[in-house]
Amino acid sequence: MPFPSSLSPRLQEALQDAGFREPTPIQKVLMPILLQGSNAIASAQTGSGKTLAYLLPILEQVRPTSPNPHRYPKVFILSPTKELAQQIYEVTTKFAFAVGLHTVLLQGGGKRSEEVKRLDRGIDIIVATPQRALEHIEARRIDIKGIKHLVIDEADMMFDMGFVSYLEKIFTAMTERSQKVIVSATITPRVVKLAKSYIKPLKRVELAPPGKIADTITQYLYPVVRSKKEALLSWLISSNNIKRALVFVRKKELADGVAESLRSWGYKVGVLHGERLHGERKKSLLAFREGRYDMLVATDIAARGLDISELDVVINYDIPHVKHDFIHRVGRTGRAGKEGMAITLVSPDEIEQLHDLQKVLGSKIKEMIIPEYAPKEVKARGYLLHPPQRRKRKAPAAKRSGTYALSKKGKKRKTTKRDGWKQFDAAKEKKKGRK
């Protein structure tokens, strides 16, 4: 099935040049809905082509303005992180240029003066992070009421990062006639509730159940003593001859430490986390994409939406705070139908988190035991997934064969302390009677 014939020849040609021959499942379902001008909230697996699924229909509906120096923006795409915003901007620029539309990127860390100049010259499409977007809106450099198409990408992460108030302000300022689209690999009930309160009518598109990971990704779980995690990480990389991997950690401080360990073992390693300068983060990601780094150690700011070609392996050094982030982490590999592998290291103090995670996934991860690194408690496969049930201690024989009292209905019941005192009193009275 080819892309919709209603797409302009220029967009069709741009798709061919970019190597896209046919739409992905989410594109087949979502594109016709958006081409009709409907509002939608859509979820699909990571790497399924959601960006083009919303971008192409919107570009088709937006026509370049006449040669007027004051181009007012018509499309507003919001992303939670700078890295994802940068990626969306690159994709959007390529296809927008094909139909004569102009795009600007607004994000923290960027030069504000340059952004203002671009907005003053006139622009058709804005790709932005929420905070920077709201700054420009409040400074009246963007007329939000003139926006015809709004896209919220990775909406559930907006909640986790505390951007709900920003979204509410933007939704409130927009007209009801504008088209609104919300997309993510994981749509939580909170996102649905917010969407329904501001977007009407709203069509729901869900191609995979929450927690579904692509079948192209093979997963392995390694139980490990926490103090041996770095050693096991090195052993796994060398023994599996892994040339390139994205290593996820939960904390910024840990990212620097793990990166230093990998460097000491001879790997070229980049680091990506929130406390590094925007320029440093950008350079690390670019170097990893271009193959100048063997490994990239990152926090969950790199888990959402990033498309890194030829990434065969993702390693979870630990389990993330937010369970759905695990799905996004793993989704950096096995994209667009390619094979991928995801390795997760789990220490004993993470067992409860693992069980909670597997409830979300709806399946168990294959467990691998390496005796030199595994905890002492791990004596057989399946311990972390199915911890042994504690046996109830049997009462001593004397207690088990203790006296029983008859209930009013004549059934035996085990004696209680109260029964014991009754027997004591009865024996006492009997003794008195003998005297």
In total, the number of strands is 16
The helix content is: 25-40%
Count of domains = 2
- How far apart lie the N and C ends? 105 Å
How many distinct helices? 16
Class based on secondary structure composition and strand pairing:
alpha/beta
**Low-pLDDT regions:** 387-391, 398-409
Global Rg: 29 Å
The name CATH uses for the topology of the largest domain is Rossmann fold
- Strand line-up in the sheet with most strands: 3-4-2-5-6-1-7
> What is the CATH architecture assignment of the largest domain?
3-Layer(aba) Sandwich
CATH superfamily of the largest domain: P-loop containing nucleotide triphosphate hydrolases
Described by the principal axes of the CA atoms, the overall outline is globular
The CATH class of the largest domain turns out to be: Alpha Beta
Mean pLDDT: 83
What kind of sheet is the major sheet?
A: 7 strands, parallel
Strand content: 15-25%
Quaternary state reads: single chain
Structure summarized in a few sentences:
With 435 residues, the protein is α/β, with parallel strands linked by helices. Residues 387-391 and 398-409 have low confidence and may be disordered.
